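Appendix B. One record, verbatim.
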Amino acid sequence: MGRITDALEQLSSQHAALDALLSDIALTPDATLRTRYVDDLAHLLTAHLAIEQEYVYPVIATHVSAGVLAELYAEHGEIKRVLADLLWQDADDEQFVPTLKQLTVLLDGHGAWQDDQLFPPAQVALSQAHQTVIGQQIAQWLPTAAAA
């Protein structure tokens, strides 16, 4: 498929990659491997949230209500808090699995809502050229997530 240049496609692709990492973490019994997957998750997730906040949310701010925008930022704050908790826990800590489940629920809601409710109207509101420019900025910022 080549490189993804459409910003919204790329973010959806990142949602799928985050889901896959969460599944890998949940299904891996080896603590060392879990720790590596958590590090990969932290890298991708922090980049993903930063990309949304830096490149996408400012552009869509005029196309969504102030309440929706505030909720998006609040959700990011909660995701970051739970990710920080997960990073502080050892992979064999008794709180690791509940924290992972909490993060999974948050990210499931985050990705599903954006893919179903936010991105379709944004795609209509934003020109293809604008989406492509944002997609190129994202690809430069996080090239590994841009490869298909």
